[in-house]
Design brief:
alpha+beta, eight-stranded antiparallel sheet, five-stranded parallel sheet, about 35% helix
Length: about 525
């Protein structure tokens, strides 16, 4: 399920008519001071100060130092700077919420949820909110809801009546709960939690905190939410995750899921070595991650490229994985019984490893259909790289290939992978070079090399290229040729295996190419 930050959820509630504390988001100490100054000018009664809160998709912020109070803009600035230097999980804090501190007379817990067993929405209400509410589950009341009309009026009134509130305040709480349902239904939320729903000393009902998750399948219907990735993550999406998600959205051949988990810094802190992970198939990937973790490695990322992805998609997955600095190895392993043609994955990996001039060991378990051919492709196409690349089959267990990864890393003794720009032949983009468009890429042919190698390239092109009086041409219409990126990548790798030069497939990777170029030589 996709998530919203606290401040995003509060804005939705405010637009619906529920009160929230005055404040705003800050991304620097100076911004925090500015927000605090504006809040303090309007605060009534004066002198309460502001609260500064880390915006992170996690619980326990206060215990980790992610919630603190300030009396002045200068204090708010200092707190914000400290929090913006923090990390929650493995990733940095990028935003803090600065808002007025309110005088709370009582705290309630209100949550909209979907009851899977009843297949209907439900409102959960507890007479005491704040931290530790999970431990008070027995005292939480359930208010059944109609999917369209909302909370059952009689049940809602009865439950609120048990709270011992003044009549006017009780009515305000009922209306607030109805607004919670309205907001949740409007954005197709899976959950919307307010903890606490504060009752102030002057009788106002205020959403003092807010957590929202939205159904993944509903995200596309709600662009107004600004959700970048319609998947559950435990942190705001990183730039690599954004790039990976665009790859998945632009090419629906096969699946591709990528999530960052650990970084070079966290591996150093943990005293472990960081490995890039490339899986195929959810269950098999999880089993393989366990195997490589059991060898003492820390996994940099989770990746699932399955469902018979084309070489271009596997290539992009590998490039994204290799944009993570500090890797000591590249570990690929899936279910071992994948019903997909593994040789296509081998072509994509071989191309990526060659372009990156891989200098760390890679152990790839390509179990499944055509595994013999896949292992042979990987072995021969990567034989000249600085890093040792080995392919394995379904008879090789994840534990055994993870052990092999450990041995190769110990033998090579790499200081850690440094992301770099991909290498490419000199004729790519040169005046006079021949080009043909494929999906999100370009096939480049060197006219000079073609004179000597044209027949050999044609022989490896699957009937897609021909020699037209000494000039390369395609045998299909340009529109039909666009879909032949897999075959052209296969042609490039097969040519490289046999020492034949003159053809290269340039695969576009929006965002990553610029990122890689910026780190070239780093």
């Amino acid at each position: 399920m996709a998530r919203l930050h606290e401040h995003q959820g509060k804005q939705l509630l405010e637009r619906a008519g529920l009160s929230i504390p005055r404040g705003g988001v800050a991304r620097s100490g100076d911004e925090a001071a500015g927000v605090a100054a504006g809040v303090l000018k309007q605060q009534s009664p004066p002198g309460l100060g502001v609260v500064v809160k880390v915006q992170a998709w996690t619980t326990g912020r206060a215990a980790a130092g992610g919630v603190a109070f300030a009396k002045t803009p200068a204090e708010a600035s200092v707190l914000a700077q400290r929090m913006l230097a923090m990390r929650f999980g493995q990733f940095p804090v990028t935003e803090v919420l600065v808002e007025e501190r309110i005088e709370i007379a009582r705290e309630l817990f209100v949550s909209f949820a979907v009851d899977e067993r009843a297949r209907a929405p439900v409102i959960l209400l507890s007479a005491s909110g704040g931290s530790g509410v999970e431990d008070r589950a027995a005292s939480t009341h359930r208010v059944p809801c109609h999917a369209i009309d909302g909370p059952d009026p009689a049940a809602l009134k009865k439950v609120v009546g048990t709270l011992g509130l003044d009549e006017a305040v009780a009515k305000g709480v009922e209306e607030a709960i109805k607004l919670v349902f309205t907001v949740a239904r409007g954005i197709e939320a899976r959950s919307l939690e307010i903890n606490p729903l504060a009752i102030t000393k002057d009788g106002r009902i205020v959403a003092a905190d807010c957590r929202v998750t939205v159904d993944d399948y509903a995200v596309g219907r709600h662009p107004e939410l600004g959700i970048e990735i319609a998947r559950e993550l435990d942190h705001p999406p990183t730039e690599l995750e954004r790039i990976a998600y665009r790859v998945e959205q632009s090419d629906h051949r096969g699946t591709f899921f990528f999530a960052q988990m650990n970084t070079k810094e966290t591996a150093t802190t943990a005293g472990k070595m960081l490995v890039g992970f490339h899986g195929a198939g959810g269950g098999g990937s999880m089993m393989s991650m366990d195997a490589i973790t059991n060898e003492g490695f820390l996994v940099a990322n989770f990746c699932d490229a399955s469902g018979n992805p084309p070489p271009a998609k596997v290539y992009r997955a590998a490039r994204i994985i290799l944009q993570q600095p500090g890797l000591v190895g590249y570990f690929g392993s899936g279910s071992g019984v994948a019903n997909q043609e593994q040789f296509w994955s081998a072509y994509g990996l071989a191309k990526a490893f060659w372009e990156m001039n891989l200098d760390i060991p890679a152990v790839i378990r390509l179990g499944g259909n055509t595994e013999d051919r896949a292992v042979d492709i990987l072995k021969s196409a990567c034989s000249g790289l600085p890093g040792k690349v080995e392919g394995y089959k379904k008879t090789d267990s994840p534990a055994s290939v993870a052990g092999r990864m450990r041995t190769l890393v110990a033998q090579q003794g790499s200081a850690g992978w440094v992301p770099r720009a991909p290498r490419k032949p000199a004729f790519v983009g040169a005046p006079g070079s021949i080009r043909f468009a494929v999906k999100d890429g370009t096939v480049w042919i060197d006219p000079v090399a073609w004179k000597a190698s044209g027949p050999a390239i044609v022989a490896r092109s699957g009937g897609l290229l021909q020699d037209n009086h000494g000039v390369p041409s395609i045998t299909l219409s340009p529109t039909d040729f666009m879909a032949k990126d897999s075959e052209m990548i296969a042609c490039e790798v097969e040519c490289r295996r046999d020492g034949i030069e003159g053809l290269f497939v340039q695969i576009d990777l929006a965002g990553l190419d610029a990122m890689a170029a910026g780190k070239a030589g780093a």
